[in-house]
Amino acid sequence: MLVSYKWLKELVDIDVPSSELAEKMSTTGIEVEGVEVPGAGLSKIVVGEVISCDDVPETHLHLCMVDTGEDELRQIVCGAPNVRAGIKVMVALPGARIADNYKIKKGKIRGMESLGMICSLQELGISDSVIPKEFADGIQILPEDAVNGSDVLPYLDLNDEVVELSITPNRADALSMRGVAHEVAAIYGKTVNFPEKALVESNSKAADKISVAIESDKVAYYASRVVEGVTIAPSPQWLQNLLMNAGIRPINNVVDVTNYILLYFGQPMHAFDFDKFDGQAIVARDARQGETLVTLDGEERQLTTEDIVIAVNDKPVALGGVMGGQSTEIDSTSKTVVLEAAVFNGKSIRKTSGRLNLRSESSSRFEKGINLATVTEALDFAAAMLQELAGGQVLAGRIEAGEVATEPVQVSTSLDYVNVRLGTVLTYADVEDVFEKLGFGLEGDEKLFTVSVPRRRWDISIQADLVEEIARIYGYDRLPTTLPDADGTAGELTASQKLRRQVRTLAEGTGLTEVITYALTTPEKAVQFKAEPTQLTELMWPMSVERSVLRQSMVSGILDTVAYNVARRNKNLALYEIGKVFDQTGDAKKDLPTEISSFAFALTGLVAEKDFQTPAVAVDFFHAKGILETLFAKLGVHVTYRASKDLASLHPGRTALIECDGQVIGFVGQVHPQVAKAYGIPETYVAELNLDAVLAALPRTQVFKDITKFPAVTRDIALLLDKKVSHQAILEAIASAKVSRLTAVKLFDVYAGANIVSGKKSMAYSLTFQNPEDNLTDEEVAKYMEKITKALTEQVGAEVR
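-> structure tokens emitted (801 positions)
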């Protein structure tokens, strides 16, 4: 928001340096980006009157004699197409400084002496985007009452100071001069002085000309006034100056009045040419899907049902709250003007302007909110200005539809609530003084008081808002400061963080290298290595299909990394990742997914390269399983492995589910050859663990055990078994014997072939027994072996060889 300091001082009786005002506003809640003087650096630029203007043959130049208030006329050569005798212009005298600190000197052009320069606004550093269209390609023509030889800067308000405010969404009330004036008045304890304009209505009724209706729940209020007999002309210089200093291009007196109201009241307005309407009924409605409208910028807009249109005879003539339509714009032939003031839904306006990439001063204000209490006042003020500046006659009555609440909002709190939050000892008189400065009503006492908040401050609705207002107007610098309490707690890692660090250390200790992959992937890969997939969690506006869905397994992302490296001849890989996977068990469109900490790794290539004395050793299932066994052994978590064919993406004969206390917490296995081919990778083994389940299974206490002084005893046992009996079944049978002195079981041989009955296999185990308190005798060990043999015979049908 660009604020003219000269205009502001007309609304509030202050006379302080702009730098002081900027500091005060910044410390009370509205940040000031800076203060600039549009004419800074310009010098020796005066008003001149072109007395004569002769064309230079065979050139575009003109030889002008200009009166600059001196004894003699000044000869100046000018190439502007709109220079002519009898106009007042801006003249840079020799020695003058114009834009970019360029110095004007006496010179000769085509052999003709030129004692100065007739300037355009561009040459004074004014942006092309705000220069009036009639002067865009030529020099600026000054008002006829400009005095020859006088400084030109005051005529264009280039000596004004422009304060740039950085408006946050909660203080959109400051997107108007009246809002800024209220703020400044509160800061300095002044009152605002808002000019009023008398509106004289004609005998004719506006209702005889037009009618308005609302057919959309996105429009709360719509009002119009009709002004007849207007004369389209350039706006007076003061109005053009105001608009240019605010960053708005002057167009004509009618359009400029609507922009003036936008700046003054913060109320977006639009002016229609009534004679271009196809009917009399104005309807604010939702756009229809596929409907089109050519806006004022000449672009054809494709509309959706999310948009608001202003329609006449069911034909859109404006995009509500964003931009008017080209078919009804004000031009030099316009005679009857229909003024519009409305209250549109901010969310709808934001969606429309964002979708069409059509941000405007109007849409910005509707998005952030407008003052409901001054909508009709702004409309009447605009109509009165058209009477004054365009010679129009205002037809009697406003044509309205809908309604908005304009009464103040009541917010209650107590003095104790305020002082506790601010750490102050304010009295009720202090609070009264603050709200008097703000122009808010106040009733009650220190135990409970109620503040009447005007509609111009729609950001205030709860107790905390009142506390903020008191704090900033009372002065943040006057609030007591206290040091933070020194009592604190020692920082430490959470159990989850500790586990992640342990797992990372153990994984890297086994030779794995950490990678970080995307949490977003394709719908197919998201569930590829998931035994029981849940609903997909999809992004509403993904950048691409490859990054559109949250993953439910990390393996697919690691395999993408494996494929990337294999394609670049890096074939021996051992990669791991610790991250999050996402399960969606609720409504995918409303509920957030459950985040699960996960650990996954992938192995491919060779464990040992071939050399002159060592054969090459390729990774296999047992290398992957060995990493997991090392991990679980160090963490003290007991798990079992169960062969499975449930995971379609893994080899059905080389895959195992990992179980802990009867719950599946992960898997380990070879990537199915077809899946590996699709990824473009060789034989690869993968595993994934649910770290949250591992965390729950961690032993709560670590009990120290002395190293026993007594030797262990080892016995071997060879079993003849059915080929279908698994190693895990044998371990469970041995455990069921409940031999407390059994400390280790190791499988050291598996044989099936010659001398073994068909359909059978031989498995040999080494059993270790140890008593930490005494030596074991042969008789004790024999009893243990007998119990274990019995369990094996009964449970798995083993035959001791």
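The CA atoms of residues 668 and 687 lie 4 Å apart.
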